[in-house]
Amino acid sequence: MKHLRNHLFSVAGVVGFLFLALATAPSNKNENNSNRRPSAPANTTTFTNNKSGLSAELERNYVDFSISYPNSWKLDTSAGRGSSPNFMKVQRLNSDEITIEQLAIGYFSGQRELMEVLAAQLNQQFSGQFPNYRKVSEGKTHIGPYDGYEFRFTGRTKTAKGDPLDVYGRTVLLAGDSDRKGVTLLMMATSESSDVHGPEEVGEKGELPIR
C-alpha cells in the first residue's frame, strides 16, 4: 500500500517543524486562550479545528486546537468525516506517494490521571494492527508547554510494489482542561525518511517535530 493505514483509535518544505496550539491547555483563567496562540511560521498552512461537518463522535469529543504544517504536506480531507476517528491528518509523501512522515490528531476523554491507562489500551489496539509491532518505550512527555504521556513503537509494512517499509511511531496523549477532553497525536515516520532512523527520532528530526 502506498499510504500508511489510519491506525489512530478513539478511546471513551522550508519549515522543519509543525506548530501546535491547544486552547484546552491548563492556563490562568483570566487569560484569553485565543490571544495566546502565536503567529504561524512562514511557508506553512494552518489548520484550525472546528465543529462544522464533524462526525457525531468527534463533535461530542471536540477539542479546540490549531496546528501549522509545511505547505508541502498533504492534508487528508476524509479526516473528521464519516467513521474517521481523527480531527485531522496530514502527511509528507515522496514522488511515489509513499508516506515519509505522518501526523493524525484524534481525541481521548477521561481524567488526566488515566492517560497511562489509556495509552496502554491504545498500545494493545496497535499491536493487532501493525505487522511486527513492538513497543519500545513509554512515559511522561511534553509537547511545547503541554504535559502528556507517550509510547513509541516500531512495525513493518509493505509498499504497493511489495517492498518492505519500516514504520517508526510515537503516540502522545495531551491533557485538556477540566471537561476531561484531550488530544491524541499519532506521529509516524517510515524508512523512506532520510532523517528519521528509529522511533526515538520521531517528532525530534525530519519535518515532524512539534513545537
In a nutshell, what does this entry contain?
Helices cover 9% and strands 37% of the residues.
Would you give an account of this structure?
- The chain is mostly beta strands and 211 residues long.
- It has a single domain, classed as Mog1/PsbP, alpha/beta/alpha sandwich (Protein Transport Mog1p, Chain A, 3-Layer(aba) Sandwich), CATH 3.40.1000.
- It is built from two helices and ten strands; from the N terminus they run E-E-H-E-E-E-E-H-E-E-E-E.
- The chain has helices spanning 56-60, 115-127; strands spanning 19-22, 44-48, 65-70, 74-75, 88-93, 99-109, 134-143, 146-158, 164-174, 181-190.
- The strands form two sheets. A seven-stranded antiparallel sheet has the order 4-5-6-10-9-8-7, with helices on one face. A three-stranded antiparallel sheet has the order 1-3-2, with no helix packed on it.
- Strand 9 (164-174) and strand 10 form a beta hairpin.
- The longest helix has 13 residues, at 115-127.
- 40% of the residues are buried.
Can you give the helix content as a percent range? under 10%
Largest sheet: 7 strands, antiparallel
Arithmetic mean of pLDDT:
82
Count of the domains? 1
Unreliable spans are 5-16, 24-35
Under CATH, the homologous superfamily reads Mog1/PsbP, alpha/beta/alpha sandwich
Write the topology of this structure.
Blueprint: E1 19-22, E2 44-48, H1 56-60, E3 65-70, E4 74-75, E5 88-93, E6 99-109, H2 115-127, E7 134-143, E8 146-158, E9 164-174, E10 181-190
Antiparallel strand pairs: 1-3, 2-3, 4-5, 5-6, 6-10, 7-8, 8-9, 9-10
